[in-house]
Every structure is written in structure tokens, then in C-alpha cells.
Amino acid sequence: MHTKPLFAALLLLAACAPQQQKPAIEGTWKLISGTVIEKNDTTFTDYTAGKSFIKVINGSHFSFTGHDLNGGKDSATAFYGSGAGTYTLQDSNYTEHLEYCNDRRWEGNSFHFTLTIKGDTLIQQGTEKVAGTAIDRLNIEKYIRLK
Questions:
Q1: What is the mean pLDDT of residues 32-47?
Q2: How far apart are CA 59 and CA 15, in angstroms?
């Protein structure tokens, strides 16, 4: 049996097959600004000074982490936040299913967003509502691609 020609033909066929393009959302993103609208009160935060956040998104999971940039040493000056979970993406409809969070009240919740990606900029907009808390707000976050 001549398996070498068959193997070569299969290898050539596999090499010529179109490569599956990963979704544009996958990668590492740096949060640069956030706007929160809660009960008609708007708060804009510039994340290019004072705090730094990144979000990492792969084929099935996301994670975010952030900390203060001033080297805070105690609860009055230090900041740290993180979370992770799975997500679903259908067209521009993005839903995060938060499984882990440093603020445990957020765990087990799903958050629905609309995504817009233009070049290396991602804008995520949606309502964050956490049952059993007063958290019910529109959140608009703007990220730039790092990787």
C-alpha cells in the first residue's frame, strides 16, 4: 500500500483549506475610559491615570483585572479588582457570565452588552444590574487593543 502519496495529498489539502479566522474580540484590551449612568447621574472615568485595567478574551472565556497605579498600601489608598467567566457573542451582542469576582455579589450574574469594534478600539455598552443590590446602571467602556 502506498501511504506516502496519500499522506502527502491530505497534507496538501489541509494546507490549502481556508483558515478559520478568530473573532475580532479575541485578544488583550486596555480600558481607557468608562462612563456610568445611574439614576440620571453620569460619571466619566479616565483610566489612563490613577488606575489601570486590562481585559483578556479568548475563544470561550474573559477575564479582567485592575489596580491602582500609585502603589497603594492600605484600604484607603490601594485598589484591586478582578473577575472572570465565560461569554457568548452573537453578531454585536456580547454577554458575560461572571463566575469569579473579587466582589462576590457580582458572581453568578450575566451582563448583556452591545459591542462595537473599529480598528483597535472596542466599545462595550450595556446595563449592569446585580440582584439584591442597588447596582442598576448603564455602563459604557472604551478599550484599545494591546495584543
A1: 94
A2: 23
Residue keyed to cell 454577554: 95
Task: Decide: 133 and 105 in contact? Cβ < 8 Å.
Answer: yes
Question: Does an H or E element contain 24, and which?
Answer: none
Angle at 51 between CA 144 and CA 87, to 5 degrees: 50
Cα separation of 80 and 77, whole Å? 10
Contacts of 122 (CB under 8 A, 6+ apart): 25, 29, 115, 116, 142, 143, 144, 145
Give me 83's grid cell: 473577575
Task: Give the CA dihedral 100, 102, 106, 110, nearest 10 degrees.
Answer: -40
pTM of the model: 0.81
Q: Taking the CA atoms of the chain, what radius of gyration do you get in angstroms?
A: 20
d(CA 106, CA 131): 9
